[in-house]
Design brief:
Blueprint: E1 4-8, H1 12-23, E2 27-32, E3 55-58, H2 65-75, H3 79-86, E4 88-89, E5 94-97, H4 99-112, E6 116-120, E7 131-134, H5 142-152, E8 158-163, E9 166-168, E10 178-179, H6 189-192, E11 195-200, H7 202-214, H8 235-240, E12 268-274, E13 281-284, H9 293-300, E14 311-313, E15 316-321, H10 325-328, E16 334-335, E17 338-343, H11 353-371, H12 384-395, H13 424-445
Parallel strand pairs: 1-2, 1-7, 2-6, 7-17
Antiparallel strand pairs: 3-5, 4-5, 8-15, 9-13, 9-14, 10-11, 11-12, 12-13, 16-17
Amino acid sequence: MTQELHIIGGGMAGSEAAWQAANAGVQVVIHEMRPETGTFAHQTGNLAEMVCSNSFRSDDDEQNAVGLLHWEMRAAGGLIMSMADRHRLPAGGALAVDRELFSQAVTAALQDHPNVRVEAGEISALPETGTWIIATGPLTSEGLGAAIAAETGQDRLAFFDAIAPIVYADTIDMSKAWMQSRYDKGETEEERTAYLNCPMDRDQYEAFIDALLAADKTEFHEGETAGYFDGCLPIEVMAERGRETLRHGPMKPVGLTNPHQPEVKAHAVVQLRRDNALGTLYNIVGFQTKMKYGAQTEVFRMIPGLENAGFARLGGIHRNTFLNSPTLLDNQMRLRSRPHIRFAGQITGVEGYVESAAMGLLAGRLAAADIQGRTLPDLPQDTAMGALVHHITGGAEAKTFQPMNVNFGLFRPLDGIRGGRRGRKDRYKAYTDRAKEAWSEWLNAHQLDSVD
C-alpha cells in the first residue's frame, strides 16, 4: 500500500484518527503546526495537549452518555482512553488525568508507531488530492479557516471559548477548604476526596457576584462578536444571566459537608480539581473566564481559602472554529464538495475532549477503509458514537446548529421504558446496554488489525 493518510492537526481527534488508521496498516502523516506556529492556549508542541480542563468527565458507562463513549472507545482500542487510564488522577466518578504526562504519552506512542510520522508546519490551503482528515480543533489557523470558509461559503466559522485558571495547591488555606467529592462519590477514599472545596456564605457570594459583574473583561477586536457554547460559558457571562445562576451551576453547594463547620450549610461552594499527579496544581472547576488578568487575581482571591492563592495559569479567551456539519458533511464525515477530505473533532461541531477523540476514532477508521478499498457501513445509531455522528451529519437542525456534547437526548427512544425523572436510572441503563451490544457487534464485524 502506497497511499498515505494525511491528518491536519495533532489534537485529541487527530491523534486518535492517526492511531486507528495506523493500526489498520495505513501509513499516516500528522501535520501539526505547533511548535513552529503557536496558539494562545497551547503551551507545548506535544500532541493531544489539554488546553482547558484536565477531565474527560464522567467514567460511568451505565448511567452517563460520556462514560458510555469512554467504554466504546476503550472497546475499539482507543489511544486517548488508554493513555488517560494510564495517567488518571482521583476525581470522584470522573476520569481526570495529569495533563502533561498524558500528552507526553500520546506523543511518544504515535512517534514510536512504525506507520506514523509527524511533520511540523502549518497547512493553510485545502488539499486538492490524496486522502485527508482535517482535525484542527477550536484553534484552526487563520489561513486554513479562511480556505474552509471560502470552500463552504460560510461567513462565520467561529465562536469564543474560555479556559479556567490553575492554582498552586500549597497556596490554598486548608483551614477553610476541605477535600470531598460531591455526595462522597467514588469507590476509594482517594476518589471520595478528589475535590477541594471552598465554601461561601450568602454575603460572601453576593460580594463575589458584584465583583464578577464589575470586573474588567477582555475586549473583542472590531468586527468580532462572542457566541458562547452554553456548556462552557465564562463565569461572568453566567452571572450576567442571573445572580443565582452560579449557585445552580459550578458553585452549587449540594452533596458537601464542611468538616470545619459541619452544622453550617454553605450558600455556595467553589470546587477545585487536581490537575497533575503530584497534586501540586488544582484547576477551578467551571471557572472559565474572559476577565483581564489583574481582575482575575482580585476576584478569585475573594474566595474563602484562596485569599493568598498563587496562580500557575490564569484564565483566558480563545477562538473556537466549527462547521455547520449537517449541511456540509455526508454520513461518512466527508466534505460533500471535496469527498477526499474528512473532518473530525471539535471542528465538526462536537464539544469536549471525549467527543472530539471519538470523532477522530471514527474518521480514522473510515479513511483507512477508503484507502484499503472497502467501505464501512454506517455506525449503529443506538451507540453513543453513532448517535453523536448522526446528530452532526444530519440529525441536528442546520439553522440553529451549535456544538453538542454527547447526551442521552441524542439516542433513539426505547419502547416499554418509563419516561420522566423517576424512570431515568432504568432508562439510562437500557440505553447503555443496547449501545454496548450494538457497538460490540459492529466492531466484531469490522475489526481492524492491531499493532502494538
